[in-house]
Amino acid sequence: MKIKDLADGVTYNFRIRAKTLTYGPEVEANITTGPGEGAPGPPGEPFISRYGSALTLHWTSGDQGRAPITRYVIEARPSDEGLWDILIKEIPKEVTSYTLNLEMLREGVTYDFRVIAVNDYGYGSPSAPSPTIS
């Protein structure tokens, strides 16, 4: 489930329960938005190079936080939706560029991309969005 328009650093209370024939017991949890203490800082703003049917995102590493960076995640935001989706989630820590085939994207839609570093403390703050690309 995606929930939009949450403020960073705010604790929200979520409750959920399942229904088969009747509703089951409610489960409740407090979730604080944003990166946890010790998580990495944002990578540098990605820039994009395009070659034929592929595009490559390039970025620079940011502050690693309290533990070494273990991987990177690329998110994309289609112009017709406005919500960030994880596009690639297992980019090795030593990589600062990633090439993807344009067939992964919808034709005629513009996209923004951003990069997030991950360490043992969790997901860090995202980079600034890339320039928009069609």
UniProtKB/TrEMBL annotation:
It comes from the Eukaryota. Keywords: Repeat. InterPro entries: FN3_dom, FN3_sf, Ig-like_fold, Striated_Muscle_Regulatory. Gene3D superfamilies: Immunoglobulins. Residues 39-134 form the Fibronectin type-III domain. SUPFAM superfamilies: Fibronectin type III. Coiled coil: none annotated. PANTHER family: TITIN (PTHR13817:SF151). This is Protein sidekick-2. The gene is SDK2_2.
